[in-house]
Amino acid sequence: MKRFVFDLDGTLLTGSFDFEHEYFKTVYKDEAGRLFDKMGEYLDEYERTYPRYSNDTLAYFLTTKSGLVFNDKIINGWCDAMSVVPDKIEDNIFELLEHLKSKDCSLAVLTNWYGKTQIPRLEKAGMLDYFDEVYTGDMVLKPHKKSYLMAMDRFAKEECVFIGDNVDKDYIGPRACGMESVLYDKNNDHHESLVKVKNMRELIKKY
Ligand SMILES: [Mg+2]
C-alpha cells in the first residue's frame, strides 16, 4: 500500500466538544442545550445533501433546521472556538505515522469540517507535517464519492487505504470507490465481520 488516508475526529485526535457547547451558550443562551443535542444530526444531514461546507449554505440550512439565526459571523466564531479545543491524541498514532513514513507511504487527511478549524488542530498536535495533503469539508465532503477520489490523488485505488472511526463515511464510502478501508473501533462498538482495529499498533503489524 502506498497511500493512507485518515479521518481526523475520533481517529487522529479527539476534541472536547464542551467548547462547542460553551460557544453556543454565548450566542444562543437558553437555546444552546437544545441546539447542541441536535447539531450532530443537522450536520450529518448537511453533509449528505451538499457537496461542501460554505458559510452561506450552512447558515441557511441551520437557520431553517433549528429556527435560530445563523450567519457568517456566528459560523466564523464557531470555527475559531473549535480551532483551540483541547485535543487528545489517539494512542500510538505517532508510532503508526512514523512507521508508514519509514516505508515511504504518502499520508493524507480527509475530514468533514472547515480547514480553518482542522489545520490549527493538526499543527498544535505536531501532526501536520506528516501529511502530504489535508482535504477539508470546505473543499469536499464525505460520504460523497468525489471526496474519496480526491483523496486518492495520483494513486490507484488499489494502492490506497482509508482509516477512520465512522462506518458510513470512513468504511463503506471508500469501499464503494474500490479502496481498502479499516475501521478504527477502539471501544469495540461494531460487528466482528468488519475489518477493524482497536489500537493503531495493529495497523503497524498489518502494513
Ligand atoms: Mg471521525
Termini separation comes to: 7 Å
- At CATH level 3, the topology of the largest domain is Rossmann fold
What number is the mean pLDDT? 97
Number of helices: 9
Query: What is the number of strand segments?
Result: 8
Apparent shape? globular
Ligand identities:
magnesium ion
CATH architecture of the largest domain: 3-Layer(aba) Sandwich
Main sheet: which strands, in order across?
5-4-1-6-7-8
Percent range of helical residues: 40-55%
Q: Secondary-structure element order, as H and E?
A: EEHHHHEHEHEHEHEEH
What is the CATH C level class of the largest domain, in words? Alpha Beta
Count up the domains. 2
Report the radius of gyration as a whole number of Å: 17 Å
Task: State the oligomer.
Answer: single chain
What structural category characterises the helix and strand content?
alpha/beta
What kind of sheet is the major sheet?
6 strands, parallel
Question: Looking at this structure, what is the CATH superfamily of the largest domain?
Answer: HAD superfamily/HAD-like
What are the low-pLDDT stretches, counting only 5+ consecutive residues below 50? none
Strand content: 5-15%
